[in-house]
C-alpha cells in the first residue's frame, strides 16, 4: 500500500516543499506515496510538521510512525502530551551551512571592525591594524550540530575557539568546557561570544547581568540561537555601560520583533530578522525522506528529539 | 666580522622593527650583527628596505648582498637601475593571514547582505534567504602568494572559486584560468570579484568600461590589491548604472585618498584606508632574517623579485 504522508504546516510552506519532497520521494523509491495536506488521521504513516501548524492534537494519528519536523527548534511542540510517536528535529545540511556562513560573516565583521568603514560619514584616512584571528578568542556556547560546525569553521579561519556545553562534549580542534565553572571560564575569554544553545528552561537568561559582567570589557555578542538565552534588560544595560561593545541579534522572545522594541534603534545593536538559519527546501526534503526510508526499513530514525532534555 | 645591516625606512618604522629584528637575529645566531639606520655604504652587507626611504641610489652599496623589502609591493623600486643586487619582496605570513581575513570578511559581508542590517534606520522585519556559498561564484584575479591563499580559504568556506592570472597557474581546489580569454570568462562568472594582481603596466585598468560590462549585473568588487588596477571613472559609471552593485576599495592611485575624491561619499562604495595587508613586525622580521641566514649560508634567497616581470 502506498505511504500516506501528511504535510502539516502553513499553506505557504506547501508551495515551497511540495516539489522538493516529491523529488526526494521519487529518488528514494517512494514515487507512489500519497503526499497531501489533508489525509484521514488514522491512515497517516508520517507527518511532515511545522510547530506553528494548526495540527496540535496528535491523538487520532494512531498509526503514524514518526513526526518529522521541518525546523531545528522543537520547543513549541516537545511538551505536547498527545505527541507520543518518535519526533525528529530538522538537521538540514543547508541550514547548517547557512548558519555557519551567517556566523562567520558577523564574527569577521566584528573582528575586522568593518562597521567603522561602512558607517563612516566623512573623509577620514585612519589606518588601523586589527589583531590576527590567531590572537582573537571566540567562544561558542552550545556544541550541538550547529555549534560544533560553527566552532570548527572559526578555528579553521585561525581563531582561538572555546566551546561550551551543559554536559561534557568533545569537538576536534576546539577547547571544550562544560558546566557552571566552565561557563564562567568560557565567558572570561569571550572577546566574541556566539550563542547556539537550545531553548530549554535551563538555558533561559544564560546571559544575564552576572554572566555579562564575566566577559571581557568591550566584548561582542552574536545570538543566532534563541531569544530567551539573553536577559534583554541586562544586555541593554551592559551595552549602555560599555561592558558589551555591540550585539547582533537574530532571534527574540517575541517575533517579529515589535516596532517599539529598544533593540531596533539602539546604536550598539544590529537586528536581523531571524535569517541566520533558514531551512533550504531541497536539502531538508532529502533529510525528511531519509527518515521515511529508515522507518520503512526498520532502521533507527536520525535526529530524534530527547523528550526529557527538550532537544 | 659581524654583519652590517642597514635599516633604510622611515624613522617610525625603526621604532616598530628594531626590537623584532634584533630578536630574530639573535634567534638565528647573528646576535653580534650591527643593525643601524646609518652605516657607511661600502660596508653594508644587507639592506632592510622600504621603497619610500630616502635611499634611492644604490650605487655606493658595492658589497651589499641583498635588498630585503619590508613591503609586498615593489613597483616603486623595481625600475631603479642602480639596484643591481638581489631584491626580495616581503611575503609575511602575518600579512597573508591579515589579507585573507580582510577579504573573507568583505566577501561574507556581500554574500550575506550584511549592510542591509547595519544600515537599517527603522524597524522593518523583512526576512531574506541569501544563496549558500556553494551557489555563489567568487573570482580572485591574481594567484600570487596572497591570491592563491585567499582563493583556497574562500573555497574552504564553500564558495565556487575561479582564479585568474596572466600566465597559467595551478592552485589546488581552484578552477584556474589565464590570459585574455580566461579573463573574460572569469569576469562573466564574478558575482564577487577580488583584485589581488600586482601593479605592473600590464595590469593597469584591468577593470575598465569594457571588462566591467563583462561581469554579471549587480556584481560586487573588492580591491585590496593596487589602486591602478581599476579605471576609477569607469567604476563610478558602472556603480551609477547599477552594473556594479557595490565596491569596497582599500587601495587608490593617490593615498591617502584625497578628501574631495568621489569614492568617499559614493553610496555604493566603502573606502578602507589601506589596511587589508598590514605587515606584522614580528613575523616579517623572521622572514628578513631567514634571507640573511640564506645569504650567509650561500643558499638561494626566498621571495626574489623577477625584474623583467616587475614582481
What does this structure look like?
2 copies of one chain form a homodimer. Chain A is of the alpha/beta class. Chain A folds into 2 domains: 4-92 and 279-296, NAD(P)-binding Rossmann-like Domain (Rossmann fold); 93-271, NAD(P)-binding Rossmann-like Domain (Rossmann fold, 3-Layer(aba) Sandwich). Helix content of chain A is 32%, strand content 16%. The first copy, chain A, contains 9 helices and 12 strands. The first copy, chain A, has helices at residues 11-27, 93-112, 114-119, 145-156, 179-189, 209-213, 232-241, 262-265, 281-296; strands at 4-8, 34-36, 46-49, 66-69, 87-88, 137-141, 160-165, 175-178, 192-195, 219-223, 244-249, 269-271. In chain A, the strands form 2 sheets. In chain A, strands 8-7-6-9-10-11-12 form a 7-stranded parallel β-sheet. In chain A, strands 2-1-3-4-5 form a 5-stranded parallel β-sheet, covered by helices on one side. In chain A, strand 9, helix 6 (209-213) and strand 10 (219-223) form a beta-alpha-beta unit. In chain A, helix 2 crosses helix 4 (145-156). The longest helix of chain A has 20 residues, at 93-112. Chain A is elongated, with a radius of gyration of 21 Å. At the A-B interface, helix 2 and helix 3 of A face helix 2 and helix 3 of B.
Which keywords apply here?
32% helix; 12 strands; Rossmann fold; alpha/beta; 5-stranded parallel β-sheet; 2 domains; 311 residues; 16% strand; elongated; homodimer; 7-stranded parallel β-sheet
